[in-house]
Amino acid sequence: MKKEQLLNIAQELGSPVYVYDAHKIESQYKRLTSAFTNVKNLKINYAAKALSNISVLKFLKNLGSGLDTVSIQEVQLGLVAGFKAQNIIFTPNGVSLEEIEEVAKLGVQINIDNLSILEQFGSKHPDIPVCIRINPHVMAGGNTNISVGHIDSKFGISIHQIPHILRIVENTKMHINGIHMHTGSDILDIDVFLYASEILFETAKNFKNLEFIDFGSGFKVPYKKGDIETNIEELGKKLTSRFNEFCKSYGKELTLAFEPGKFLVSEAGFFLVKVNVVKQTTSTVFAQVDSGFNHLIRPMLYGSQHEIMNISNPDGRERFYSVVGYICETDTFANNRRINEINEGDILAFKNAGAYCFTMASNYNSRFRPAEVLWYNNKAHLIRKHETFDDLLANQVTVDLSKKKSVVKK
């Protein structure tokens, strides 16, 4: 998207506001499918947790995507968006057996990541096909909070517990139709991914009636100029060759599945904020904006770096600023960053704001969550309204305390 288009949206709708470029989402989807064009059966399940706005879900469904979900609410959103139940996979962690059973009733593919639930579900519902999430004990990802395949992770069933899995499957006679892994996000080294894939192939040999192997995702996208990213094309070439080879030895054409979230929507997103104050201290120039970690927590939670553009003064002289929010805690978006000269009232655009930004937003400090806009066919479509004060009160219940007697004894 052009800076002028973003600026027009901020001026028309106010700030803060999220903007998503549908055409970038489409190009990322096609890039991934093109990398695996030589796989006979490829399935892309978009990870709804990255960005779950119903209009974005519908757009991805129309591209041919399935849906990866982690809660029954995401499953329900997917169904409302028009995804067929058989094109949704449910990969929760630590949820109750009751929630898994409720999702199973909807006809969604179940993916189980612990021995206890596997045995309970298999004992009660042996005829419902189940995928198993394996922990390959491979450390991958750009931050400990998003590295989920290592030995201390809460996710998945350890590869060292394969005998336990096989015992449960044998005892319950349950139907295992898929094997799954997800090592983490921001994977740079495709050799690490390929190594983990070999573990998954070896595990798959234990199950004779598989329909698919799910390799998760975690592909890294660039966050700044010159930043490195996962080489999807090289990974496609190498994993395709190995997958097709495995299918031959397995004696059956399986489906190769992925669950990209950030890869599809991160670069499509822009977060637009207004500069309230430019504050000079003895050591720093702060650009204080009309947002905070209540709207964009990733820099504080993950140490992620979002490129920041001054779209009100794109040709101005570059100066150094620390961009901070209005929350009553430290909420620093950027430290000592080179940005075109900033004046009060300017609109700043945070790049890579499509994934895990709005979905992690909150009403901290009783602030409203922003509007969302989908840029499609050269037009801005409002896909979520700015919240209002009524939204803050919507589910609160007022109790009349005026006639209560004091319980404090004198």
TrEMBL record:
Q: What pathway annotation does it carry? A: Amino-acid biosynthesis; L-lysine biosynthesis via DAP pathway; L-lysine from DL-2,6-diaminopimelate: step 1/1
One GO molecular-function entry: diaminopimelate decarboxylase activity
Q: Which residues bind pyridoxal 5'-phosphate?
A: G218, Y356
Q: Where does substrate bind?
A: R298, Y302, E329, Y356
Outline the subunit composition.
Answer: Homodimer.
Q: Where is the Orn/DAP/Arg decarboxylase 2 C-terminal domain?
A: 18-354
The protein's job, in short, is: Specifically catalyzes the decarboxylation of meso-diaminopimelate (meso-DAP) to L-lysine.
Natural source organism: Pontimicrobium aquaticum
Q: Where is the Orn/DAP/Arg decarboxylase 2 N-terminal domain?
A: 24-266
- Name of this chain's protein: Diaminopimelate decarboxylase
The UniProt entry, under CDD domains, shows:
PLPDE_III_DapDC
Among Gene3D superfamilies, the record links this protein to: Alanine racemase (3.20.20.10), Lyase, Ornithine Decarboxylase, Chain A, domain 1 (2.40.37.10)
Q: Recall the taxonomic lineage recorded for the source organism.
A: Bacteria, Pseudomonadati, Bacteroidota, Flavobacteriia, Flavobacteriales
| Chain ranges passing through the membrane | none
- Keyword annotations from UniProtKB, A to Z: Amino-acid biosynthesis, Decarboxylase, Lyase, Lysine biosynthesis, Pyridoxal phosphate
Active site residues according to the UniProt entry? C328 (proton donor)
Reactions catalysed: meso-2,6-diaminopimelate + H(+) = L-lysine + CO2
The text of the family note is: Belongs to the Orn/Lys/Arg decarboxylase class-II family. LysA subfamily.
Query: What EC number(s) does this enzyme carry?
Result: 4.1.1.20
Q: Which PANTHER family match?
A: DIAMINOPIMELATE DECARBOXYLASE, GROUP IV DECARBOXYLASE
